[in-house]
Amino acid sequence: MPSENFDEWDKLREKIIGFGEKSIQKSYYPELQERLNELERFKTLLDQANDAIFLIKLPQAHIYDLNHSAYVQLGYFSHEILKKPIFELINSEDHHVVKDIFLNIEYYKINKLQHPEGQNFEINFIKKDSSNITMEVNISIVNFSGSDYAVMVARDITERKLSEEKIKASLEEKKVLLKEIHHRVKNNLQIISSLLSLQSDNIKDNQDKKIFKESQDRIKSMALIHEQLYQSKDLARINFATYVNNMMVYLFHSYSMDKMIDLKLDLDNINLEIETAIPCGLIINELVSNSLKHAFKGRNTGEIFIKFKMFNENLVLELMDDGIGFNDNEIYESNSLGLKLVTILVEQLDGELEITHENGSEFIIKFKEHIYNPRI
Predict the structure, then answer these.
(1) Which pTM was predicted?
(2) Angle in degrees, 0-180, between the axes of helices 29-48 and 6-17, rounded to the nearest 10
(3) Rg (CA), the chain
(4) DSSP E strands: which ranges in 172-285?
(5) For a designed S-S bond to 57, which of 64, 92, 156, 359 qualifies (C-beta 3.0 to 4.6 A apart)?
(6) DSSP state at residue 85
C-alpha cells in the first residue's frame, strides 16, 4: 500500500485509469476501473449532501477528508483545511464535547452496539470570516484497515435556532399577557367584592346582608384562582391543595366566631385546569361556608374535614363535618342558592354527588377532569 503521500496516490490512480496500465495485468483492469468508478460515484454522492461531512483521523483529530458542503459552508477551499486539527474549526467553548468522545474511543466503540446512531449534540463552528455557525453534529467511531476514524456529520441549524428563539419570545410575550389578564381579572373581582361590601353597609335587613356576604365569598373563591395563576409558572393549571389552603384561611377568618372549629385536610398534590378548578372551588366555598354558619349551632367545638384524591383517572372530593347534619332531600327542596349551586356545579363537572348525614354531613363528589384545548 502507498503511504499517505498524495504523489504516491496520484501515481497509483494514473496506473488504474490507464496511464501506466502496462504495469498492471490487463485482466485486473476492468475490476479496478469499476472500483474506481464506485469511489467516484460515492464521492459525488457525498458532495451532493447538504450536510457537512468530515472524516477525522484519530487520535490526532486531523481532518483526513471532507465533502464539498463542509468547506463551502465554512467558507474555505478544501486544501485550506485538509490535515488541520478539527478543533481549529470549532469554537473553543465546545472543545470539551468533542474531546470527550475522541479521548474515550474504546468506550464509544462498545457503546455503538447500544447506540448505533452515534453521539448527537450542538456545537458552534468557526467560519473563515471568524463568524460562528451553529451546527447539529453526529459523531460515529469507525475503523478502516486497523486505524480509528471519526465520521462527523454536521447540519447547519442557524435558521432553526433563530426560529426557535422567535417562538420562545412569542410564547414569553403571550405568557406575560396572560399573567396580566389573570392579574386584572383578580383585581376586577376584588373591586366587585369591595363594592358589594360597601353597598351592604347601607342594607338594614339581615337576610339581604347575608346574601351580599355569600356573593362576596363566591367572588373571592374565583379571585383566589386568578391570583394563584398570576403567581404561578403554569398559567393554565393551579395546585389545588395550595388553593384550598388559601381559601380556608379566608373563610375561617371571614366567619370568625367564638368557636374552636378544627380543620383537617387530606389533599393530593393535583394540578387542575382553570375550567375544573373554578367549579370545584365554588363547591368547597359553598359547603364549608354552610358548615361554618349552620353545622355547629349550640356548640363551641367541631371538625371540618376536606379530602381530595385521585384514583386512576377519577377525582374524588369529600367534604365532611361532625355537626348537626340534615336530611338528604333538603338539598333539593331548600331555597338556599348555595345548595342549589352545588348540584349545578356537580352537573357542570359531569360528576356524581353522594350525600350522607350520619354523625354530621358528608358530601362526596366523583368526576373526571376534562381535556381542554391548550391556551398557548
Answers:
(1) 0.54
(2) 120
(3) 37
(4) 237-239, 260-267, 271-273
(5) 64
(6) B
What is d(CA 243, CA 225) in angstroms, rounded to the nearest whole number? 7
Three cell numbers, residue 329: 332531600
Question: Which domains are assigned to the chain?
Answer: 6-158 (3.30.450.20), 162-367 (3.30.565.10)
**Cα distances (Å, whole numbers) of residue 311 to 219, 275, 348:** 30, 20, 20
**216 vs 285: CA distance, rounded Å:** 11
User: Residue type for 352, please?
Assistant: E
Q: Sort 65 into a burial class: Cβ within 10 Å, 0-12 / 13-18 / 19+.
A: middle
129, three cell numbers: 470570516
Per-residue pLDDT of the chain (376 residues; tens, 9 = 90+): 444 555 554 554 554 444 444 444 555 556 666 666 666 666 766 777 788 888 888 888 898 888 888 888 899 887 888 888 999 999 999 998 888 877 777 666 666 555 555 678 888 999 999 999 999 998 888 888 788 888 889 999 888 888 888 888 777 777 777 777 777 787 887 788 788 878 887 788 888 877 787 788 888 888 888 887 777 777 778 899 998 998 898 888 887 667 888 999 999 999 988 888 888 988 998 899 888 888 888 888 899 999 999 998 899 999 999 988 776 555 555 556 667 888 888 999 999 999 887 778 899 999 998 765 555 4
Give me the residues paired with residue 264 across strands: 305
76 burial type by CB count under 10 A (0-12 exposed, 13-18 middle, 19+ buried): middle
DSSP letter at 294? I
Residue type, 81: I
Please name the residues in contact with 100: beta carbons below 8 A apart, sequence gap of 6 or more: none
